[in-house]
Specification:
Blueprint (H helix, E strand, L loop, with lengths): L16 H15 L3 H9 L3 E2 L9 E4 L2 E4 L5 E3 L1
Antiparallel strand pairs: 1-2, 2-3, 3-4
Length: about 80
């Protein structure tokens, strides 16, 4: 069953939200990464809300905070 606005072409085509979710789950299950490895990888990164754009893409890198979306930076 397809949604009203499919996106993409060929094998990368997404027909609906359930189709997208199933494709992501297949990729995750076939990647060989365990949940423990994923949680450990995520815990090594500090993410915060960017004061400039308001997105949760403000990360600490090399002693400074940088927004991965808008480029806002804060050191110190």
């Amino acid at each position: 069953m397809s949604g009203a606005n499919p996106v993409g072409f060929g094998e990368n085509r997404i027909d609906s939200l359930p189709d997208a979710i199933s494709k992501v789950l297949k990729l995750f299950l076939n990647s060989g990464i365990t949940e423990d490895e994923e949680v450990e990888e995520m815990s090594n990164t500090s993410v915060d809300i960017c004061p400039s754009c308001g997105k949760s893409t403000f990360v600490r890198q090399e002693g400074c905070y940088n927004c991965l979306d808008c480029g806002h930076s804060k050191c110190g």
